[in-house]
Amino acid sequence: MKLWFKHFMASGELFIWSCGAGLSISLLMIGGLLVLILLNGFGYFWPADLVELTLKDGKHVIGQLAGEEVSPKGIPRIKMKIGNRDLYGLDYRWINTDQIVERATPADLVMVERREWGNFYGRLRTLVKEDKVVAEGPEAVWQSLPLLLRHAESSETESVYSLLVVDANGREKSLSLGQVMRVLRPNQLSTLEKVWVYLGNVWMVLTTEPREANTEGGIFPAIFGTVMMVMIMSLVVTPFGVIGALYLREYARQGAIVRTVRIAVNNLAGVPSIVFGVFGLGFFVYGVGGSLDALWFSDRLPTPTFGTGGILWASLTLALLTVPVVIVATEEGLAAVPREYREGSIGLGATKWETMWKVVLPTALPGILTGLILAMARAAGEVAPLMLTGVVKLAPAMPIDGTWPFIHLDRKFMHLGFHIYDVGFQSPNVEAAKPMVYVTTLVLILVVVTLNLTGILLRNRMRRKYAGSAV
C-alpha cells in the first residue's frame, strides 16, 4: 500500500485530477452565475399576467407574481409586485398563502407604465379633458387611449387629457396622459403579442435614457459611455504599449536595467485600481486639466472645463492601468517571431526599422491583439478609478452629440459597471432596483463579449494571414 501510494504521488495523477476538479468547479460556478443573470435579466422584460388576490380580511391585491418562498416561521408566502408606489409607498409585498381566499386573472386589469412612480396596476375608470368626461367605463376608455397616447408622446406641450384609474380596493388616482408611457392589458395578450411586447421592452432598455433614479427606463447612455471609453482607451494604450514592448525586446541592451524595468511593468499590473484613480485625479484632472483651463479656458473660470472629471481623463487613467498587459503580451508576440524573418529581411537590404515595421510587427500582430483584448476586458469592468475621474450617476449630455465640435471629451459620462453599483447599492428603492441590476449586468457581459469577439476574430484573421510565424 505504501509503495502504491508513493508510486501514485510520483506519477502526478493526483495533481492532474485535482486540477481537473478545480477547473470543473470553477466552470460550474461561472455557468451557474451566468444562468442566474440570464434568467433574471431576460425575465425582467416578459409582460407577466396580472393577478388579483382576495384576502381573508376582504381586501384585494393586484400585481404580478415575483416569487415564492417559505417564511422563517414555516408559512408559505408569495411575493407580489404591486406597483402603485405613490399610493402604497412600496413596490413589492409578501403575502402569506393562508391569507389568500381567491386568485383571479380578470381581463380588464391594466398596467399603466408611468414616467414617475413606477407602474400602476388597477382598472380604468374615466378619461377626462379639462374637467370634461370624454369616455367612461373600462372598455370606452381602453378604446380611446391608443390615439391619445401617441398624440401626447409626439406633442411638446402638456397634455390636456387625464386618466382616472382605480386600484384593487377602489382607491382613485388621476394621471396626466403626458406622464403615461403606455397602457397594457397583459391578461388579454396572446403568446405572440407578449413576445412582441417583450422585444419592445428589450429595445426600449437598450435605446432610451434612465428614469426614476435609474431604476426604470433604459441604459443607453451607460452603454454608449462604456463603449466610447473603451475605444478611447484602446486608441491610447495600443501605441504606447507596442512602442514600449518594441523598445524593450528589440532595441534596449539586455541587462540589469531592462530586467528591472520588466519587473516594474509586471508589478504595475498588480497595483490596486483605486491607486490609478487617485493618480488620474491628481495628474490628469487637476494637473493637466487645470493647466489647460488656465491657458485656453480662463474666461470660464472658476467653472472648470477640463479641470474636472471627464471621459478623456477616465480613458487615460484606464490606459495607464492596462498598459502593462499590452506590453507583456506584445513582448511575447515579438519573441515568437522566428529569427529567420529578421535575418532574411536585413539580408535583402532592409534597414532595422523597415524590418520592424514591415516584417516583425505584422507577424506579431496576433500577440498584440491578444494584449488589447485583455486590456479591453479589464477596462470595461473597472469602476473604482472612474468614480474619481469622470463617471456620474446621470449624465446631462453624452460625449458625442450634434453640438459643435460634436465630440466633447471634457464631459462626464455614464458607465455600466458604475450603473450596477449605483442601482444595486445606492438606490432608495432596493427591491424595485434589483431587476435593473441583473439587466445591466447582462448587458455589460454582452458588451465585453462583443468587444472581445471582435478582437479575437481580427486576431485569427491575422494569424491566417501570417501562418508561417510561431505566434
In short:
The chain has 471 residues and is an alpha+beta fold. The protein is built from 14 helices and 13 strands.
Stretches where pLDDT is under 50 for at least 5 consecutive residues are: none
By DSSP, the count of extended strands is 13
Portion of residues in beta strands equals 15-25%
CATH A-level architecture of the largest domain: Orthogonal Bundle
* Rounded mean pLDDT score: 86
Find the CATH superfamily of the largest domain: MetI-like
Helix count from the secondary structure assignment: 14
CATH class of the largest domain: Mainly Alpha
* CATH fold-level name of the largest domain: MetI-like fold
Helix/strand/pairing category: alpha+beta
Cα gyration radius (Å) = 30 Å
| Helical content (DSSP H or I, runs of 4+) | 55-70%
What count of domains describes the coordinates? Answer: 3
Helix/strand order, N-terminal first = HHEEEHEEEEEHEEEHEEHHHHHHHHH
Largest sheet: 6 strands, antiparallel
Distance between the termini: 47 Å
Q: How would the global form be characterised? A: globular
